[in-house]
């Protein structure tokens, strides 16, 4: 099971690195991210469907700052009819220290993928994470629910950044 999971994650990272993006303007990120405020638990509200998240419900991401720099990542969700907990641990590194909004994430050495924060609530109540190819998109929230007005405003900003928001699938969160 672990080997299968590692192979799936490696395949994901390879697919991110090999994406051929259609000509679009460069993807803009938020001007600044305070990583200590960004750390903590995030609930996935919606995302572009990916094979490595197939069958997931209750998806969360936990970020914690490492003492020597970098970020520990723990992604979790429930899968299958019994709701078995599925976890993936990784690390992230800032690649643009001027903003802290461009990171790379690694779940399996030596593969890394871009993790760009393209929208962020003033109080860090939501975040939108994308990839410069615009093939991946996640809407995250500090709570498992997001009101429809905020969600619609986020969709409009993502659309303006060149994302096909019709591809978004809402993530089922328990409760």
Describe this structure as you would to a colleague:
There is one protein chain. With about 180 residues, the protein is an alpha+beta fold. The chain has a single domain (about 1-170), classed as Lipocalin (Beta Barrel). Helix content is about 20%, strand content about 40%. It has an eight-stranded antiparallel beta barrel with strand order 1-2-3-4-5-6-7-8. The longest helix is centred in the first third of the chain and has 16 residues, at about 1-15. The protein is globular, with a radius of gyration of 15 Å.
Q: What are the salient characteristics of this protein?
A:
alpha+beta, Lipocalin, 175 residues, 19% helix, globular, 3 helices, disordered N terminus, single chain, 8-stranded antiparallel β-barrel
Strand and helix map with partners:
Layout: H1 2-17, H2 35-38, E1 40-47, E2 57-65, E3 71-79, E4 84-94, E5 102-108, E6 111-120, E7 126-130, E8 137-141, H3 148-160, E9 169-170
Antiparallel strand pairs: 1-2, 1-8, 1-9, 2-3, 3-4, 4-5, 5-6, 6-7, 7-8
Low-confidence stretches: 1-21
Question: Portion of residues in helices?
Answer: 10-25%
User: How does the overall form come out from the CA principal axes?
Assistant: globular
- Second CATH tier, the architecture: Beta Barrel
Provide the gyration radius in Å: 15 Å
The fraction of residues in strands falls at 35-45%
Name the assembly state.
Answer: single chain
Helices and strands, in N-to-C order? HHEEEEEEEEHE
Largest sheet: 8 strands, antiparallel, barrel
* Widest sheet: strand ordering: 1-2-3-4-5-6-7-8
User: Regarding CATH, which class?
Assistant: Mainly Beta
DSSP helical segment count: 3
Quote the average pLDDT: 87
The tally of domains stands at: 1
Straight-line N-to-C gap: 29 Å
Secondary structure category: alpha+beta
Task: Count every beta strand, where a strand is a DSSP E run of 2 or more residues.
Answer: 9
